[in-house]
Amino acid sequence: MSSGILTIPSTAAYAAPPRNGAGLPSNGAAFRVEAVDFAYDGTHPMFRSLALSARPGEFVALLGPSGCGKTTLLNLLSGFLPPSSGRITIDGETVTPEMPALGYVFQSPQLFPWLDVLDNVRFGLRMAGRLPEAEQRDKALAALALVGLEAAAGKFPHQLSGGMQQRVALARALVLEPRLLLMDEPFAALDAITRATLNEELLRLCGRLGQTVLFITHDVEEAVFLADRVVLLDIAPAGIHSELAIDLPRPRRLRETRRLERFTTLTDTLLERISAIVGAA
Ligand SMILES: Nc1ncnc2c1ncn2[C@@H]1O[C@H](COP(=O)(O)OP(=O)(O)OP(=O)(O)O)[C@@H](O)[C@H]1O
C-alpha cells in the first residue's frame, strides 16, 4: 500500500518493471493455482488438479459454458472457497480473502443505497481505519476521477444510471489499490453502448494502473478485445480446455480493433472451441 492518493506507477519506480499487455510498467500481482481439487459438498467435483497462473499485469479473460465453474474459480482465487487439495498463491503467498492485493467487481454493483457515491467508494478505507478521514475522502475522490465520476460524488446510487453505478463499483475497488482485480461479468447487465465505453475505460485504467486482472465473461468479443490471454474452461470437472494468446496491438479502441482481420480470426477460433465443448457435452 502506498501513502499517496492513488499510486500511478512510473518507469522510474521499478528497476526492472514487468510489462503488462499495454506495454507499460506494472504493479500487478502474479497468481498461481497449482494442482487444485475442488468439489462442492465434497460430492460434486468441479476441478481436478487444476493449474493456472498469470504474470504481473496480465489481463486474463475466463470463458466457458454456463456452469463450468468460472465463478467457482474466482472464489477459489479470492480465498472465499478453500480448495480440497492443492495451493493458490498471490505473489507466492497463500491466498486469503483479507489480502489487500485483491479487488472485486461483480455483475451487480452492490452499492449501499443509503451512502452517497463518495462514501460508497470510501467504505473500504473507512473499514480498514488506517487513514484519517480527510485522506480517505481525497483518495475516494481521486478514484472517482479515474472513472470520470468526480462530479457525482454527492449523489446517491438511485440517482445514477447502471453504467455510472458500475463505474462507482470500479472506483470502490480501485481506491484500495488492488494488485489483482477479480471481475465477474462486470458489464453483462449493461446496454451495448455503455458496455463498449466501459470496456475501453477499463483498458485505459489497466494500462495506467498496471494491476493483474481476471475477467469472467460470456462474450467472446469482449474477451478478445480486453485480454492478453483467454482461458477457456471445459465442462466440469475437466478444468481448462485450452488457452489462446491475444496478440492484438495495444492501445485498443473498439471500433478499430474489431475491424482487424486478426480480431475475427481470434473470435472465430474461440467460438469454434466453445461449440466443440458444448457439442461434446
Ligand atoms: N455453493 C454451491 N453449492 C453447490 N453447488 C454450487 C454452489 N455454487 C455453484 N454451484 C454449482 O457449481 C457449478 C458451477 O457454478 P459456477 O457459478 O462456478 O459456474 P459458472 O461457470 O460461473 O456459471 P455461469 O456462466 O452460469 O455464471 C454449477 O453447477 C452450480 O450449480
From TrEMBL:
Pfam families (UniProt xref): ABC_tran
SMART domains: AAA
UniProt domain ABC transporter: residue ranges: 31-260
UniProt entry keywords in alphabetical sequence: ATP-binding, Nucleotide-binding, Plasmid, Transport
Protein name listed in UniProt: ABC transporter ATP-binding protein
Lineage top rank: taxon: Bacteria
Molecular function per GO: ATP binding; ATP hydrolysis activity
